[in-house]
């Protein structure tokens, strides 16, 4: 199906995505919640949080570091040691018991990080030694200017590729249904894609195909371990978050899509405020499920996202903040129940308030 071709599908229809059957086409978008401890281990309440939202066709978890050196924020979880893996097993079991499906988003923040968050001797790294003109969080939560990153060596790149592959193995061993590679929002994989942050003149920079190479290598390594049908990729073409200068970079995203197509990943997850020729071309070229997200500033009520499915612009739609305050969002949409408003003050503060205490509209009813 290509963009602009009307379909009979709705957001409530089931769909097969790679190796996974989904009950509907509404995806809970990845959202950082800062509930993990200093060791990157999520609390037991995280299992409750995700299981409450299992009416989504698919849950994509908060960004999760594949190595200790990949961490960029206090309170984000990891999936690179046994204790972290066990916490994720509790989450996977809870979501599956509630009838849901869940992918773990793997995120290396690259230059968007601070030395206090990573092990002694590790370095803040990026494709090129170009600091982000933003503030980043220290381990104590204080915001400070971003540091000058080190340009990754070929050996360092190979090590990060292995980290992603090993984290994907842990994710599957923990019972998670798959992983999403975070190549958006100004983090490491996105930094390699953009000529504003990638000034390399080796095999990883200088042309569209070379800028796409690192992301393709990560995807190939992950697919070799867990199967491409259990792997998605998230991108944000033209995105400016975290001091990205990605406009006019269409050739790189087309090269990336072409480089990934042979693998046949489960899906491509694209952030899109409005339709553009690039988005339409990506949709037309992409061989498997295509997911759209309207972004942090975009509208994402049912009336906004439903046409993305019925028009053929996407096979799946992802929604973020509405899932925070409406754990039963899909059921509310299906039955026309008003949505609750989120409390932004609780997004990142830790604790259970604003995390697992939002009410269900369907309690005591037969809203399925």
Rg computed from alpha carbons, rounded to a whole number of angstroms: 19 Å
Q: Count up the domains.
A: 1
Summed up, the helix count is: 10
Unreliable spans: 364-368
Strand order of the largest sheet: 3-4-5-10-11-12-13-14
> Strand pairing plus helix content: what structural class?
alpha/beta
CATH homology-level superfamily: Aldolase class I
CATH architecture assignment: Alpha-Beta Barrel
Q: Briefly note the CATH topology name.
A: TIM Barrel
Tell me the fraction of residues in β-strands, as a range: 5-15%
CATH class: Alpha Beta
What is the straight-line distance between the termini? 29 Å
Profile the largest sheet.
Answer: 8 strands, parallel, barrel
Dominant shape: globular
Order of helices and strands: EEEHEHEEEEEHEHHEHEHEHEHH
β-strand number? 14
Summarize the structure.
One of its GO terms (cellular component) is cytosol. This protein is an alpha/beta fold. The chain has helices spanning about 45-50, 80-95, 155-175, 190-195, 210-225, 250-260, 275-285, 300-310, 320-325, 330-335, and strands at about 15, 20, 25-30, 60, 100-105, 125, 135, 145, 150, 180-185, 230-235, 265-270, 290-295, 315-320.
Describe the structure.
The chain is 30% helix and 14% strand. The chain contains ten helices and 14 strands. The protein has a single domain (15-346), classed as Aldolase class I (TIM Barrel, Alpha-Beta Barrel), CATH 3.20.20.70. β3, α1 (45-52) and β4 (58-60) form a beta-alpha-beta unit. The chain is globular, with a radius of gyration of 19 Å. α1 (45-52) runs parallel beside α2 (82-97), α3 runs parallel beside α5 (208-226) and α5 (208-226) runs parallel beside α6 (250-261). The strands form four sheets. Strands 3-4-5-10-11-12-13-14 form an eight-stranded parallel β-barrel, surrounded by four helices. Strands 1-2 form a two-stranded antiparallel ribbon. The protein is α/β, with parallel strands linked by helices.
């Amino acid at each position: 199906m290509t963009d602009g071709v009307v379909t009979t599908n709705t957001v409530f229809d089931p769909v097969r995505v790679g190796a996974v059957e989904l009950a509907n086409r509404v995806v809970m978008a990845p959202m950082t919640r800062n509930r993990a401890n200093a060791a990157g281990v999520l609390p037991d309440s995280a299992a409750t949080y995700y299981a409450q939202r299992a009416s989504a066709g698919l849950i994509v978890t908060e960004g999760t570091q594949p190595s200790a050196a990949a961490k960029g924020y206090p309170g984000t979880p990891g999936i690179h040691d046994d204790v972290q893996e066990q916490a994720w097993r509790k989450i996977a079991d809870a979501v599956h018991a509630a009838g849901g499906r869940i992918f773990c988003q793997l995120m290396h923040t690259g230059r968007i990080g601070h030395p206090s968050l990573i092990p002694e001797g590790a370095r803040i790294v990026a494709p090129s030694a170009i600091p982000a003109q933003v503030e980043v969080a220290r381990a104590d939560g204080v915001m400070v200017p971003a540091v000058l990153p080190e340009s990754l060596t070929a050996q360092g790149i190979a090590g990060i590729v292995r980290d992603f592959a090993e984290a994907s193995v842990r994710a599957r061993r923990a019972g998670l249904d798959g992983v999403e590679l975070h190549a958006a929002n100004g983090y490491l994989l996105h930094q390699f894609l953009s000529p504003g942050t990638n000034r390399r003149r080796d095999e990883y920079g200088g042309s569209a195909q070379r800028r796409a190479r690192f992301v393709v290598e990560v995807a190939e390594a992950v697919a070799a371990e867990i199967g491409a049908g259990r792997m998605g990729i998230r991108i944000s073409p033209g995105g400016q978050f975290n001091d990205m200068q990605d406009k006019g970079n269409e050739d790189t995203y087309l090269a990336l899509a072409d480089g990934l197509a042979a693998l046949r990943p489960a899906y491509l997850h694209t952030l899109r405020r409005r339709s553009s020729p690039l988005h339409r071309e990506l949709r037309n070229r992409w061989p498997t499920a295509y997911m759209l997200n309207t972004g942090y500033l975009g509208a994402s009520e049912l009336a906004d996202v439903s046409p993305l499915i019925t028009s053929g612009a996407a096979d799946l739609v992802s929604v973020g903040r509405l899932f925070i305050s409406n754990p039963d969002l899909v059921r509310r949409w299906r039955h026309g129940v008003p949505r609750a408003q989120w409390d932004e003050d609780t997004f990142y503060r830790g604790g259970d308030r604003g995390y697992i205490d939002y009410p269900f509209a369907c309690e005591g009813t037969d809203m399925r």
